[in-house]
Each structure stands twice: as C-alpha cells, then as structure tokens.
Amino acid sequence: RSVVSLRDVTKRFSNGTLALSRMTMDIRKGEFVSLLGPSGCGKSTALRIIAGLGRPSQGMVDWPASRIGRDGRPDADIGFVFQEPTLMPWKPVFDNAFLPLRLKGMGKGEARDRVMAALETVGLKDFAKAYPRELSGGMRMRVSIARALVTDPKLLLMDEPFGALDEITRQKLNDDVLRLWSEKDLTVVFVTHSVFEAAYLSSRIAVMGARPGRVVADMMLPRPEGRE
Ligand code: ADP
Ligand code: ADP
Q1: What ranges make up the beta strands (E) of the chain?
Q2: What's one GO MF term for it (predicted)?
Q3: Are the C-beta atoms of 159 and 145 separated by less than 8 Å?
Q4: SS3 for 23?
C-alpha cells in the first residue's frame, strides 16, 4: 500500500530551473528507499515534495493513507531530518527535540514523556539538559533525529543527513537508523549520493538522473538476514 505517490511530477523554480521532469514514483509502507543520484539531479526537491513542503508545478502528489489538511499538506506526521542538524544553539537538547510538539501547541509538561522517549531512542536521554555546543557532531545529528521522531511519524525523510560526518560516526548513525526502521514500523526515504550507503541501508534504491530529473532506475533489494 502506498504511503506517497508522485505522478508525473514536474518542478520548475521561478528562476526557470527545471529540477524535476515528470517524475513518477510510489513509496510503499515499510520500505526503506534510498534516493541516489548526482548533485543537482533533484533529490532534495523530490523529498520536499514528498514532505508536502513544496508543491509540484505540474503533476500530482498524493498521500493515500493520510487526510489532507486545508493547506494541501498531509496532516499525518512526517519526520524530516535535514543535511545539517539545524539545532537552536541557545536551547538545551530537550527544547530542541520538543520543538515539533511545541509547534502543535503542546505544553512542556505534557510533552515530557514523549521527548524523553525520543531522546532515549537515540541514546541521549542523559543529555536532555546539555546544550548543542557541548555535543559532538554525531550527537547533534542524533538530537535532530530525535526531533524528527518526537511526533511518532509513519514516514521519516532524511536529506543526506550524515554527509558532513566522519566515516565511523556515519556508520554508527546508519546502524541507528536501521534499528529505528526495524523497531518502529517506519517508512524511510533516505537521500544520499553514496552508493555504499544506499546498498547498506535500503530495501529499495531509486536512482535519479540529472536530466530529465526523474527516477531512471528503481531496484528492490532482498532484505539482509535478520531484518523483518
Ligand atoms: P539535489 O538534492 O539532487 O542535489 P536539488 O533538488 O537540490 O538537487 O536541486 C535540483 C536543481 O534545482 C538544481 O539545479 C538546483 O540548483 C535547483 N534548485 C533547487 N532549489 C532551487 C530553488 N529554490 N530555486 C531555484 N533553483 C533551485
Ligand atoms: P560521534 O558520533 O560524534 O563520534 P560519539 O557518539 O562517538 O560521537 O560520542 C562522542 C563522545 O561522547 C564519546 O566520548 C562518547 O563516549 C560520548 N557519548 C556519546 N553518546 C553518549 C551517551 N549516550 N552517553 C554517554 N556518553 C556519550
């Protein structure tokens, strides 16, 4: 069953750049899809459209399992992890992870258990009171993953999240993401330009090409042993 479906999605930015051209793709429940392709081929643009953060210029995006809000975006929760951790440096870890719930109007007391559960999931529950500057790069990225998980999303979108980190940290975080995927009944779309990362993580690899800016190869991988 599809979680997101793109039909002939074309995206032309106001400066004339054609980022996507008739991209068609279904993301099914439970998949771990890597979107692979060279810089500038439209991976981030596609991910933002999947998140409902950008609208197609032509074509359709649909979230069949979600109700669509008045703003045209799915009201089902979608977690988004950006390239940089994008934390508020003046706020402790707890407040950073709490942000999505605060934006939904939830009070801190009410949110406490969920925020702490998300921090525990990424191994940082003892760091709730720490400030981002006190953490390593890998730990900051884990805070941003906790922030994406705090609303208990069904769909987790990650835009080249670990590209700025050293290989060992990156590999540890990849294993964390795999653990989350198998434990939490998540569908994941993971943008990367690392073939290695895509092969290590995914149940499916979709390769995008620069021109035309759409999926040019789409492969299902057998799930490694021990994974659901
Ligand atoms: P990728 O994530 O694969 O590197 P992007 O989706 O970021 O690719 O970008 C696809 C193309 O669209 C690139 O040529 C990029 O320069 C262009 N682009 C991205 N965002 C904008 C924007 N807001 N305005 C104009 N052009 C953009
Ligand atoms: P990175 O992922 O950036 O390499 P690590 O997760 O390896 O960072 O941790 C960097 C430092 O912070 C290490 O000294 C590690 O012991 C400490 N650290 C990281 N996570 C925790 C944690 N959950 N509890 C205690 N110490 C931690």
Answers
A1: 2-12, 18-28, 32-36, 58-62, 78-81, 155-159, 187-192, 204-209, 214-220
A2: ATP hydrolysis activity
A3: no
A4: strand
Its ipTM equals 0.72
Instruction: Tell me, in angstroms, the distance from the centre of ligand 2 to residue 57's CA.
Output: 44
| Beta strand ranges found along 2-151 (DSSP E) | 2-12, 18-28, 32-36, 58-62, 78-81
Tens of pLDDT, residue by residue over 155-176, are 999 999 998 899 999 999 999 9
CA 94-186-30 angle, to 5 degrees, is: 170
User: Quick check: CB of 86 below 6 Å from ligand 1?
Assistant: no
pTM of the model: 0.87
* Closest C-alpha residue for ligand 1 atom 15: 40
Q: Which residues contact 185 (CB under 8 A, 6 or more apart)?
A: 30, 154
Nearest Cα to Cα of residue 161 among 28, 1, 35, 6: 35
Q: Determine whether the shortest distance from the Cβ of 16 to ligand 1 is under 6 A.
A: no
Q: Which residues line ligand 2 (CB under 6 A)?
A: 123-124, 126, 136-139, 169, 172
